[in-house]
Design goal:
Structural class: alpha/beta
Strand content: 25-35%
Largest sheet: 8 strands, parallel, barrel
Helix content: 10-25%
Number of helices: 11
Distance between the termini: 24 Å
Radius of gyration: 28 Å
Bound molecules: alpha-L-arabinofuranose
Shape: globular
Strand order of the largest sheet: 5-17-20-21-22-23-24-25
Oligomer: single chain
Amino acid sequence: MLRPTLTGLGLLLCASIAGAETPAPLALTVDVAALGKAISPDLFGIFFEDLNYAADGGLYAEMLQNRSFEYSATEQASWGPFSFWDLVKMDGGEGQLGLGDSRPVHANNPHYLLLTVQKPGAGVGIANRGFDRIPLEAGKAYDASFWAYQTFMGKKWAEGVDQKQPMSVTVRLEGKDGTVLAEAPLVVTGRAWTKYAVTLTPSRSEPEARFVLVAHQQGGLALDMVSLLPRDTFKGHANGLRRDLAQTIADLHPRFMRFPGGCLVHGTGIHAYYDWKDSIGPVEQRQGQRNSWGYHQTLGLGYFEYFQFCEDIGAAPVPVVTAGVCCQHAGDSPGRGQEGLPLAEMPAYIQDILDLIEWANGPADSPWGAKRAAAGHPAPFGLKYLGVGNEDAITPEFRERFKLIHDALRAKHPEITIIGTAGPFPDGEDFEQGWAFVRQEKVAMVDEHYYRSPQWFWENLARYDSYDRQGAKVYVGEYAAHESDRRNTLRTALAEAAYLTSLERNGDIVHLASYAPLLARRQHTQWTPDMIYFNDTSVFPSLNYTVQKLFGHNTGDTALPATLAGAEKSARLAASAVRDSKTGELIVKLVNGDDTPRRLTVKLPGVKAGSTAGVTTFTAPSLDAVNEDGQPAAGKVESGTLPASAEFTYELGAHSLAILRVK
Ligand code: AHR
């Protein structure tokens, strides 16, 4: 609760402090007149990885699961090509499902469904319930499509049947009780793979619908890429993104987005890495595969969609490619599984990376720029960062391949900032060796990762104060404060907030930072904690999300000296001050990770008496508080103003973050 009070020093903004003991007074002094340090304009961003069903079944708006019949037991033991599909036989219909692979719609998409209708009855076909459920909204348009050809007409192998007779089908959305909510007839004709599409608009909302496609004559159909996408995607793009999730991400105001991983980039073995070229072009030609997290990635959300999303939300794209080695944990060999691409394959691999830069930035008439233009984006995307490697063990194999890639990129694209890697931890052998290697090779930026306790974050607020300013810049590519039970408590959120003040203070050396992981679908989560949880209809941002959002909305371009005096050694207190030269505002952030409110004398020499400060506070009932799905958020953000001057008093609430903006 914000409560303005009159004091001798002017108006005081108080948090409710009933019953709390008042500890020693503190003073925060900001050298408002200082030139300060220029800090990264891209400091706070996001890291998107298709983990926890973040892409398929998540941000990617496709509503049907296993749309191209490529699920397999290599992904999950119980899965096969018909997983999440049911055979539908209506009113006396008889038929079967089979699997085809001899005449695929595209070599990258090898399997398809063979539907045989022996007796049509009221229809024989297939049904899909999506990822858990298919929620539909009344009156909204859904684009249903599929690829098909007629395998035969009438009876298989029978003589004298009119093989040219077309096959009529119905595409339908059904309620859980079987009610038809929308349907459309279509006619499949001939032996050539053809895309059929229709728009369905359900007559009523339905939380648990199913998609049905049935055929009405005796005969056979080959079916592939059976898809249902809402028309109402983020920014209205075809093959687009789920609007609510995309908007929640956009609301963070991230300055960059790293993608597609993480471990996902390595894939499951040396030749199973994420190949960006498999992820572009018509969706039926993309090469889905098992992703590192044990499920299927369609690549329907591919590089074009990633770059487009970055552009839509004003984030610089930061794609990551492997360094020509697979993960050291690949092949069920913890720590010993790293292999390198054969050196003979490295020139082609490096060419793929150079092609990526041309695809992103080249003119529309260049070979790869033309593919971007053909996808609907003739203008370059403006790629300026590229990650090479992720948490790799720093071995001779790694060094040799990284150097080959790095040398080629520097020679051909000195304008791109290459981001190297320093292993999976904030210290230790790979970290030390990674940094030594980066210094040796003069890599522009290094990706550091750490998942540590909240206490670790508080104890490491000075981590970057002593980093070499002449050396590589830092990208804190993955970080999160982890409780032992991995809950998203206020304790973790405030530890991260405190840490972000230290990154801001060091924004001259720390250039980028992103919390990890970003998204997690409830019931399909391989990793916790995450920043944003969701199910098929709702989004559940964590307390950590709110911290990220508050920092994303309160950035500056210059860090000013800010000194907190009078705090006990054990106190969990942190502060930073930045100037935003565009608005001329001074932005002060204060974090209190303790359960006691603190009174501060805020000294802002030069700020005129009678000035006004905007104040935003964030707290929750206790350090153990978490946001519960579907409940009102435990975390409360409140905004107000207070009179500011060269010196005033501010009551920093217990376990809270406060942001003051002073003109
Ligand atoms: O963020 C989850 C995983 O953590 C990433 O894929 C990997 O880079 C790290 O180990």
